Amino acid sequence: MSVARLFVTRARPFDSARGRLGPMSTIVIEGERIVEVTPEPREPGPDDRVIDAGGRVVTPGLIDAHVHVMAVTHDVWRLSAQPPSLITAQTKPILEAMLHRGFTTVRDAGGADFGLQEAVRRGLFEGPRLYIAAHPLTQTGGHADSRPQGVQEMVCSCAGLGLVGAIADGDAEVRRAVREQIRNGANQIKIMAGGGVASPTDPIDGTQYSLAELAAICEEADAANTYVMAHAYSPRSISRAVRAGVRTIEHGNLLDEASAEAMNEESAFLVPTLATYAALGDEGARLGWSAAMLAKLERVQHRGVQAIAIAKAEGVPIVFGTDLLGHMHGRQMEEFALRLPVQTPAEILQSATAVAAQVLRAEGQIGTLQPGALADLLIVEGDPTQSIDMWRDPAQGIRLVMQGGRVVRGAGAAGN
Fold first, then answer.
1. Which pTM was predicted?
2. Which domain holds residue 203?
């Protein structure tokens, strides 16, 4: 018995490995996977479905490698007082909006748990495929230790969600903390290797965790066949982390040539998140951020583009990330424009497809249109190797979103 297939005809596929467009082709899909991409004519059977791309470009589904889908507000204190069920309910529109913007997969950097991941997998919530970090690991007084100065304990009704850091110090504690995240379904381990903007007590250029602790964390992650992603800004915190075995540096705004060289030597990835600094630069004062936090934001905000330029010159792979919070999630597509001074449109799209898939260790499965990959694809207006216009207004610029062979939106608008 033949299996009904889906044919996407008159498509210009984006080759995410090479960063260029292929010839006019037909993409053949069976179930949730691509089985063929060919410029040769193919004849659909009577039970097959056809979507005419009308000569438009087809790209893989986008991947955002640094999100917090459960950060339904920027205010951690407010979140800590909410029950997990309410926080989870509030993620529903955030997830749906991400998917409709074309993000078929995201890597959550702290917040989402196994239950939310499973809800999306089962189709209970519509949203991107989730790779979760569970609770981020932090030293006492580190970036994810959200207790204000003078407060010893913080009661959190959101226990179980990774919205509050797992405080762990010393070899035994950090090993146990890594193992606990793995037990709870983490796909990768998130750590705080340096100071942060939004945290109340740590300097932005400080280092966090000893070299021995960093090595122990990376050893435990490797033992579980996963890797470590590290929040870090300063050259010193970046170099220490990658030398200890950290695989991805998150943010990295203060990167210099020496720390970029260390990243290159250790085959580490950089995940800049320019969108969140632009958003907080516009809204931080209105949202009640302290003078100290705003000063830290000012220090890193305008260094992000320079960091990308340094990483690019050194050959460090650059990945797409946004790190937005609360109502600011709606600014996700701004990351494309913010990178234009130092990356071409094709390079930015590669960072959100093939390069991000490498980080997730999902090469050949997502971020590509090759046979055998999941059928995550977008039909877009214009040429994304020459322009980012289609990303500025995804409601108009993306004519069709497909995830795992299922049309999410736009099937009726895909043809001429």
1. 0.94
2. 62-332
Same domain, 18 and 136: no
The one-letter amino acid code at 116 reads L
Bridge partners (DSSP) of residue 130 are 106
- Answer whether residue 349 is part of any domain: no
Q: What backbone phi and psi angles, to 5 degrees, belong to 37? A: -130, 110
Bridge-partner residues for 129, per DSSP?
105
> In terms of Cα–Cα distance, which of 73, 59, 131, 93 is closest to 377?
59
Q: What CATH code is carried by the domain that includes residue 401? A: 2.30.40.10
CATH at 159: 3.20.20.140
**Residue 357 within a domain:** no
Residue 166 located in a structural domain:
yes
CA nearest neighbour of 246 among 137, 145, 144: 137
Q: Within this chain, do residues 156 and 294 fall inside the same structural domain, yes or no? A: yes
pLDDT category of residue 188 using cuts at 50, 70 and 90: very high
Is 362 inside any structural domain? Answer: no
List, for residues 243-258, the tens digit of each pLDDT value.
999 999 999 999 999 9
The pLDDT of residue 200 is: 63
Determine how β-strand 25-30 pairs with β-strand 33-38: antiparallel
